[in-house]
Every structure is written in C-alpha cells, then in structure tokens.
Amino acid sequence: xxxxxxxxxxxxxxxxxxxxxxxxxxxxxxxxxxxxxxxxxxxxxxxxxxxxxxxxxxxxxxxxxxxxxxxxxxxxxxxxxxxxxxxxxxxxxxxxxxxxxxxxxxxxxxxxxxxxxxxxxxxxxxxxxxxxxxxxxxxxxxxxxxxxxxxxxxxxxxxxxxxxxx
Length: 166
Prior knowledge:
The protein has helices at about 5-20, 25-30, 35-40, 45-55, 65-80, 85-95, 105-110, 125-130, 140-155; strands at about 100-105, 115. The chain is mainly α.
C-alpha cells in the first residue's frame, strides 16, 4: 500500500474515533461515509433504533427523586442551571419533600399569598417564573421545582446558591 493510502487510513481512523467520542449515533450514521461497507447494512436498523430510543418519552417515578430528575431535564431544555443536590437540599429545608406543603403563618400568608409546594413558592412568583411545558398548578411537584429553580437562577444564579429561605 502506498504512503498516501496509509495516510488516508490514518485520517479515517481519527475521524471514526472522533465520531465515536461524539456519540455512537453519529458514528453509526457516519460509517458508510468512511467505507465500512459491512456495517452499512446494519445502519438503517441501528439508526431506526437510535431514533426510537431518542424520541421515546422518559418515564419518571412519581416520587421526589423522579420529580427532581424530570425537573432537571426540563431545566436543561430551557437553560436553567441547577443540580440534583442543590434542589434536594432546598426541598428538604422548605417542605421536607411534601408537595402539598403550605405555609400559613409567615408574612406572605398574612398578606394572602401563602408559600406552596415543594420549594414554597408564592403564586405571583410561580406565575412570573413558570416554565413552558409544565403545569400551571403550583402544587404540581415538577412545575413547582422548575419555576422555583427558574426564579433562583434569575435572582441567585442557581438554586445551588440558595442556603436559606429565599
């Protein structure tokens, strides 16, 4: 084999490695482009499987862990920062994980707008920071977490930066 052919093979191998690092879906789709003729027959099925897996809805458990994980996925889609640990820490402080928690004693409650839900959000804040694709019910765990994290991101940079009532 000529030196030129060896260089082309080295370039192709580097391209394949880069595509593999970028994700297996990209590598599978690129295989026919880099001369992997034996794999090209499997490409349509592999591409269909990858597409089906990507578009299939993720199922989240109906519990605190599931609500936080679903919120994090929605937050990622909207560019809202936050981590599981930061959200969980604040939920435990604010409501002990009770999505129906309501504060009927603080100044907000005295003024007629009690704090509600997992992250104890008042209605005007919930409405102002509501994230599209979530429920408009402030007691809905995912909507409450996502709106509260959106508010915390605007005010503090992230829910991770909140260490007391906010």
